[in-house]
Amino acid sequence: MAGNKTLTMIKPDAVKKNAIGGILKMINDAGFTIHAMKYTQLTKAQAELFYEVHKERPFYGELTEFMSSGPIVAAILEKDNAVEDFRKLIGATNPAEAAEGTIRKIYASSIGENAVHGSDSDENAKIEGDFHFSACERF
Ligand code: CMP
Known about the structure:
Alpha-Beta Plaits; 4 strands; binds adenosine-3',5'-cyclic-monophosphate; alpha+beta
């Protein structure tokens, strides 16, 4: 059975573009509610840990440098079928391939600076949620 939570990060590029409000509105309008949320900045070491699954990929250094370059908004979102529905809402990783009306189509500028992260499985949603939030930060 599909889970009802996913983890998102509004990435440094979208924060710099002043797009936090617009992205959160799209998330709420799509039926997601906020289970946990924080405005924070990852250290390089934290970004490396979060994206450890990509450590052999050629873009790992660039990705972790970018993700620690400025503040982000991290949030656990709640909705039935959260992981799949959120990935539909954000669109393809590469904004050039993202469908019209998706968050990445509207706000992302490149495959590296792609505005938002969304968990790719229920298992990773739990791991990523636990990475950012303790029990007392969830409502
Ligand atoms: P995200 O959903 O956060 O998960 C992994 C991230 O790696 C992805 O979004 C992209 O931002 C990044 N990524 C994937 N492929 C590339 C690439 N070819 N070059 C740079 N960054 C990439």
